[in-house]
Each structure stands twice: as structure tokens, then as C-alpha cells.
């Protein structure tokens, strides 16, 4: 059973209506934190998610459908949650999108959207969360980067650039908060079986005439030596650890959870 170390805290997880973000949100709720959800999806399904989290973990939830590519909507979302809960104690910048193409064929509008959502949104949420964290002299900022914040892959120029930028933002935020009880760190996952990665699996299966399971093994074998996907629950457990007293002096790290990808 999860020890409820975060009772009384409020956590905002961007991009949390599915995948990694939802897994992290549930882990933080299991530790007792109230949860602010953000992301796209069917309104009824999101309401059911809220009810499920509230019932499973006896916490409060709220939701904003703010478009993370738009500063004005991010500002409105932050104001909404801070008015409702008093402050955002834990900020998890998870929202992200992907597009795969060579640099010379990369649509400029896709580049702009990926940089906006994967990197610039984290700047906006961070600048808006820090004042109340400083007032409370406690806070945790966790940026969900990627192994692509540490190493590159071909045909992912915007994603790699954004995730490297997010690691840089993490370090600067950590330095600016170093003399406080606010920490900022990045988690750098390898392959996680999210809808985003499942699309890559499906495309590979179709291209190479493989079963879905064989396509998964083929994808993992290229990068992830463990041959296993990272799970959202494992990432959530690491996020909870970053929020603990034991992690007080972990500041500005880019912590890869990648089945050995970056060790190669």
C-alpha cells in the first residue's frame, strides 16, 4: 500500500488524461495529493477519470482543457487551479506531441507546435507556479523529458530539440531555486507503451508484415537493451520519490529510466 506522504499537497500534471501523465497523476493521488488534470479527451470520459481517482484515493480533483500551445490558456488554467486549491505544490510538465520526418521535409507548423507544447509550455507553468511555491517555501517541479533529452534519433529533430531544451530548463530552474525547499528535476523515459508509441508499433507491424508482439520486440531491440517497456506506474513511483524528503538534495538531474538505452 502506498504511504500517503503527500496529503494536503496539490499536484498539476499536464497532459494527464491518458498515458504517462495519467499514470503519474494516479501515483501522486495514491500518495495523497489532490490532482489537477489537463489534456484533451471526451468530457464524459474525463469526468469518469476524476470520479475514479477521487474514489480510489480519497483526494480532490479538478480539470482544465487548456491548450498547452497557448500562453493565455495556460495562464487561465494556472489561475483556475490556484484559486481552487490555494497553490500548486507539485508541477509535473508532461504534455507532449511528436512528429517524425527528416529535417528538410519537416513541416514548419509541426516544428512550432512541438516546441510550444513540449518546451515552452513548461516555461509558462513554471514561471506561474514558482511564486506560490516560494511563498510556501516548498515545491516540486518534475519535467518529463525523454531519453531524447540526452541522446538523439534521426527524423525527430523538433522532439529532440525540445526535450534537450527541457533538460536545460530543468537545470536553470534548479539553480534558481537552490537555496529554497523547491526542487526541479527531469525524468527521461525510454520507450513507454503509450498511444504515441503504439502508433510506431502498428506502423512497423504493417511495414514489415509482423504481428503486433513481434513489432514491439523489434522496436525495443533497436534501442532498449532490457527488451521491456517502461511503465507509467514506474515513472509515477519515481515522481513520488522526487517529492519525498529523501530527494531534497536531488536538484537539476536528468534521471533516465530507459532499460539501459543511454548506457550503450
TrEMBL record:
<protein>
    <submittedName>
        <fullName>3-hydroxybutyrate dehydrogenase</fullName>
    </submittedName>
</protein>
<comment type="similarity">
    <text>Belongs to the short-chain dehydrogenases/reductases (SDR) family.</text>
</comment>
<dbReference type="GO" id="GO:0032787">
    <property type="term" value="P:monocarboxylic acid metabolic process"/>
</dbReference>
<dbReference type="InterPro" id="IPR011294">
    <property type="entry name" value="3-OHbutyrate_DH"/>
</dbReference>
<dbReference type="InterPro" id="IPR002347">
    <property type="entry name" value="SDR_fam"/>
</dbReference>
<dbReference type="InterPro" id="IPR036291">
    <property type="entry name" value="NAD(P)-bd_dom_sf"/>
</dbReference>
<dbReference type="InterPro" id="IPR050259">
    <property type="entry name" value="SDR"/>
</dbReference>
<dbReference type="InterPro" id="IPR020904">
    <property type="entry name" value="Sc_DH/Rdtase_CS"/>
</dbReference>
<dbReference type="GO" id="GO:0003858">
    <property type="term" value="F:3-hydroxybutyrate dehydrogenase activity"/>
</dbReference>
<dbReference type="Pfam" id="PF00106">
    <property type="entry name" value="adh_short"/>
</dbReference>
Amino acid at each position: 500500500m502506498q504511504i500517503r506522504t503527500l496529503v494536503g499537497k496539490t499536484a498539476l500534471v499536464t497532459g494527464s488524461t491518458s498515458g504517462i501523465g495519467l499514470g503519474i497523476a494516479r501515483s501522486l493521488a495514491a500518495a495523497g495529493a489532490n490532482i489537477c488534470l489537463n489534456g484533451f479527451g471526451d468530457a464524459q470520459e474525463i469526468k469518469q477519470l476524476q470520479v475514479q481517482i477521487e474514489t480510489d484515493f480519497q483526494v480532490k480533483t479538478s480539470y482544465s482543457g487548456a491548450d498547452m500551445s497557448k500562453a493565455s490558456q495556460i495562464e487561465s488554467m494556472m489561475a483556475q487551479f490556484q484559486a481552487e486549491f490555494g497553490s500548486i505544490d507539485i508541477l509535473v510538465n508532461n504534455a507532449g506531441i511528436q512528429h517524425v520526418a527528416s529535417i528538410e521535409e519537416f513541416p514548419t507548423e509541426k516544428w512550432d507546435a512541438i516546441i510550444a507544447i513540449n518546451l515552452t509550455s513548461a516555461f509558462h507553468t513554471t514561471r506561474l507556479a514558482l511564486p506560490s511555491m516560494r511563498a510556501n517555501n516548498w515545491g516540486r517541479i518534475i519535467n518529463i523529458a525523454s531519453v531524447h533529452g540526452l541522446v538523439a534519433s534521426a527524423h525527430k529533430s523538433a522532439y529532440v530539440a525540445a526535450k534537450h531544451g527541457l533538460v536545460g530548463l530543468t537545470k536553470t530552474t534548479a539553480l534558481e531555486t537552490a537555496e529554497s525547499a523547491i526542487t526541479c528535476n527531469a525524468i527521461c523515459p525510454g520507450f513507454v507503451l503509450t498511444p504515441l508509441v503504439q502508433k510506431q508499433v502498428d506502423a512497423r507491424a504493417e511495414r514489415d508484415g509482423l504481428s503486433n508482439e513481434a513489432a514491439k520486440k523489434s522496436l525495443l531491440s533497436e534501442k532498449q537493451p532490457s527488451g521491456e517497456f517502461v511503465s507509467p506506474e514506474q515513472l509515477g513511483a519515481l515522481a513520488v520519490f522526487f517529492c519525498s524528503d529523501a530527494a531534497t538534495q536531488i536538484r537539476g538531474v536528468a534521471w533516465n529510466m530507459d532499460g539501459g538505452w543511454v548506457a550503450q
